[in-house]
Amino acid sequence: MADRLKSKVAIVTGGNSGIGETTAHTFAQEGAKVALMARREAEGKAVEEAIRADGGDATFFSCDVRDKESVQQAVSAAADTYGRIDVLFNNAGGGAGGHFPDEPDEEWIRVIEVNLTGTFYMSKAVWPHLVAAGGGAVVNMSSLAAQRGFSPAMAEAYGATSSSYYAAKAGVDALTRYMAGVGGKNNIRVNCVRPGQILTPGATRGTSRDPDGGHHVFEKMFDFHQIIQGPGYPQDVANLVLFLVSDESRFLTAEIINVDGGVAAKI
Ligand SMILES: NC(=O)c1ccc[n+]([C@@H]2O[C@H](COP(=O)([O-])OP(=O)(O)OC[C@H]3O[C@@H](n4cnc5c(N)ncnc54)[C@H](OP(=O)(O)O)[C@@H]3O)[C@@H](O)[C@H]2O)c1
Question: 26, 156, 193, 261: which has the highest count of C-beta atoms within 10 A?
Fold first, then answer.
């Protein structure tokens, strides 16, 4: 165990699965006390126990980021448990509400709420704790979808790429720059990560597999688009997030950084 986050308290939303789960482990291995927040309790408790079994410190707090009351309760409970908050990784999210123009209105609202409004509610609830701690670091979760246009090939592979997801993640990019501007005077840095294709339960759910090789269509498609071949893994994102919340990136704020195997440079 190293100590790049020694004595820091970090909230990871969506910490019970995929990128959030791996990042929570990475934070804990670097000495952080980790507050895991998501809706599914059994999965959250399992991650909490795995981190503790590994010698780290984590506690799961049930939270729906779309619900302001739920967010405030979870943040207060985390602050009561650990005494302070230094780091926030706004990772909870997801998409696939259906194709424009047929995407149902209620799916548009749901996807905007979980990705964008959830990031706003959570940041708002955590902000006073970061100010009280004398500063801190926030990392928001965007997506290549915010930067690049809609691809019919992706629609073919996934069955659905929603207009709401593209718009929500572009909103997260803009919110990042805005929050970073506000944070300067309180020593709060705000940055954002923009993954390409990362092999997680959320990203591969519902995608088909090759009958022979067993590869997700997902993996094959991005071998074509990426400079670096093969899939991205949650650890690839977690390593970047760790850098962005550690003191090693102390002179870096308002940045949106791709972690996509070079897709953005190639297409
Ligand atoms: N994997 C990729 O290729 C990729 C690429 C670009 C961006 N991203 C982004 O990365 C983030 C993590 O995705 P993932 O791929 O790791 O998928 P995942 O394994 O499905 O994780 C999604 C996480 O978000 C949580 N979540 C969803 N709705 C929530 C809500 N209303 N309140 C609280 N938590 C909620 C889920 O927990 P509960 O369901 O228990 O609440 C889960 O922990 C998402 O924001 C996604 O958009 C992923």
Answer: 193
At 58-106, the pLDDT tens digits run 999 999 999 999 999 999 999 999 999 999 999 999 987 788 888 999 9
**Site residues for ligand 1, CB cut-off 6 Å:** 13-14, 16-20, 38-40, 43, 63-66, 91-94, 114, 141, 143, 195, 197-198, 200-203
In a domain? residue 1:
no
The answer as to whether 2 is a domain residue is: no
Instruction: Quote the ligand 1 centre to 111 CA distance (angstroms).
Output: 11
- 15-34 burial string, b = 16+ CB within 10 Å, else e? bbbbbbbbbbbbbbbbbbbb
CA angle 175, 179, 180 (to 5 degrees): 115
CA dist 146 and 162 (Å) reads 12
CATH number of the domain within which 157 lies: 3.40.50.720
172-209 pLDDT tens trace: 999 999 999 999 999 999 999 999 989 887 776 656 55
The answer to the question of residue 3 being in a domain is no
**What does pTM read for this prediction?**
0.96
* Residue 161 belongs to some domain of the structure: yes
Question: From ligand 1's centre to the CA of 114, what distance in Å?
Answer: 9
**Ligand 1 mean position to 93 CA, how many Å?**
4
Q: Which domain holds residue 115?
A: 9-266
